[in-house]
Amino acid sequence: MTYKLALQLKNAGWKQIVFTCRKDDHFCNVDKEDCIIEPLGFPTLSELIEACGEEFCELVRSNNYTVKPMWLAYPSEEAFNKSGNDCVLDCCGYEIGSTPEEAVANLWLAINKK
């Protein structure tokens, strides 16, 4: 999982992601520009699926992409009807990722969009 995706999860309310900042093996303030920010505690695939709850349907590996295989996380029918008849997903079908965790994290973000 990328730092960017972990930050999106954290900003959307995923409480288990914690960030720390180190410089030369010493902890420092995250605000300092010269620090290397290291995300700790990425969610596991099981935790992501569980967080999606009944709105998760399935996870599929697709080889239809020209560059490399992608993972597709499909929502349940309930996710489509979460906001009346509007689809909560940008693509109205599934969310993608280069790993299973990224695909399901993107699905969780779409489902929990405010």
Summary of the model, kept short:
With 114 residues, the chain is α+β, with helices and mostly antiparallel strands. The protein has one domain. The protein has four helices and six strands.
Characterise this structure.
The chain has a 3-stranded antiparallel sheet with strand order 2-1-3, covered by helices on one side. Strands 4-5-6 form a 3-stranded antiparallel sheet. With 114 residues, it is an alpha+beta fold. The protein has one domain. Helix 2 packs parallel to helix 4. The mean pLDDT is 78. It has helices spanning 3-11, 45-52, 77-80, 100-111, and strands at 18-23, 26-27, 36-40, 56-62, 70-75, 95-97. The longest helix is centred in the C-terminal third of the chain and has 12 residues, at 100-111.
Question: What attributes does this structure have?
Answer:
single chain, alpha+beta, three-stranded antiparallel β-sheet, 6 strands, 114 residues, 4 helices
Structural class: alpha+beta
User: Biggest sheet: strands side by side, in what order?
Assistant: 2-1-3
Number of helices: 4
Count of spatially separate domains: 1
Shape: globular
Largest sheet: 3 strands, antiparallel
Topology:
Elements: H1 3-11, E1 18-23, E2 26-27, E3 36-40, H2 45-52, E4 56-62, E5 70-75, H3 77-80, E6 95-97, H4 100-111
Antiparallel strand pairs: 1-2, 1-3, 4-5, 5-6
Helix pairs in contact: 2-4
